[in-house]
Amino acid sequence: MNQKNRGWIALFLAPTCLIFLLIFAIPLVMVFGTSLFDYRLLPKTFTFVGFGNFVKLFTQDTKFLPILGNTLMWILIHCVFHVALGTLLAFILYKKPRGWKFVRVTYMIPNIISQSAIAMIFLNLYNAQYGALNSILKAVGLESLQHNWLFDTATAFPSVTMTWFLFAGYTTTLVLAQCLSTDECIIEAAKVDGATSFQIDRLVMFPIVKKMIGTTVIMAATYMLQLFSMIYITTAGGPGTATTNLPLYLYTTMKANNYGYANTIGVVIIVIGFVTMTLINRLFGMHKDD
To answer: What is the pTM of this model?
Structure first.
């Protein structure tokens, strides 16, 4: 590569690098830096405390560990069961049963509706006075099962989970696309060798779509690490901390004028994200060439 070409490459890369620095790299460094300070605006405070915020978070903050547990549990549910649901539906649809195109389109619709709208739907569905869920239970004679679903500590967590659990449209769409792009000759060869439909799915299709499933698992974990509006609108993290996750805790801490401590929580979210992505990459062999 001659010097002239290198100059043009540097010129075209410069705007991207500048945007990356301004929007991502510098703010990221500032998050890590300010997490080492007692940083408040009113009254204005900027005192270096070292790792004091981290020590307080893990040893003195009684809310943090339950909130961390909620976040990790949601990541696990989303990455395992939610992705499995979407993958299962994709494996059914790629065989093109009657009406498969209609199901593919309609199943994706909830994923293109805003989180706020979905949250409002479920807020009304779960309403203790006029919600459809309690009305159905009453109509079939199961009044004893009626609850204030979102504000009872026994039911709040699973109720919030159900606001997104069934909508695995992105997983289904991506895995289905990978399945449909598979050469039919591979499947036909397996059938000629006497493989059953289940064996084809397990021994032929799954290895082919494994990395795509890994991609959807990464998307699922990322989604859970940034989930905010769905929880904020339905329960605002209550009752107590039963449905609070780390992003919501960061927001409430920031609202309390404790920016240094909020950024400490942000650092924890970043570390969890990095560790989670690394584990998923290794589990699904995302770093290996086919």
So the answer is: 0.89
